[in-house]
Each structure stands twice: as C-alpha cells, then as structure tokens.
Amino acid sequence: MRTLPSGELTRLLLAWGAGDEQALDDLLPVVYRELYNMARRYMAGERPDHTLQASALVNEAYLRLVDVRQMQWQNRAHFFGVCAQLMRRILVDFGLFDCRCCCSREIHSRI
Fold first, then answer.
1. N or C: which end of the chain has fewer CB within 10 A?
2. How far apart are CA 62 and CA 72, in angstroms?
3. How many domains does the chain have?
C-alpha cells in the first residue's frame, strides 16, 4: 500500500473535485487503508452483534462520496473529515433502519 505526501493527496482531491475520474482511480487505493482503519474504530464502538462490517462501512461511504459532484475539497483533513461524518451518518441510518425492522417484527408478532 503506497502513501502519498499530503500535497499530492490534495492535488488528487482537487482534480477529482474538478471531474477527473482518473484522479479518483489513483486516490482510492491510497486512502482505502486509512478509511478502513477509521471504520474499524467506529465499529468497535457499536454493539457486538452488529451486522455491518468495517469494509461494508467503507464501501457505503465510497458510494455516497462518488455521488458527490463538483465537491471543492480543501485538503486531506477536509476529505477525511467528510468521510468520518459520512460513516457516522451511515451507522445512524443503519441503526434506525435496524430498529424499525425490529419494531415492525415485534408489532406483527403481537397481532
């Protein structure tokens, strides 16, 4: 896994924000390990029987990120900050969905 100097990472982020798909292809292998480690830290704070895995959390964040068009990335910290916020939102959304499913099953079992 290669690492990039912060300036090169920022250059790739700016190019991706300007619509350069090749920059995204160059960026992902470099940032994946850090995103995965971030996801593992978030998952460590979740309940033990959580069905979402760290790799799935990274993948979901990726899907939401690539949907963003013309994002004006400022630097590495901005990118990872947005990723961290996305992962937290995904976990909240997943928890809300899981809760609705459990509540729905509980209501139907009482009928």
1. C
2. 17
3. 1
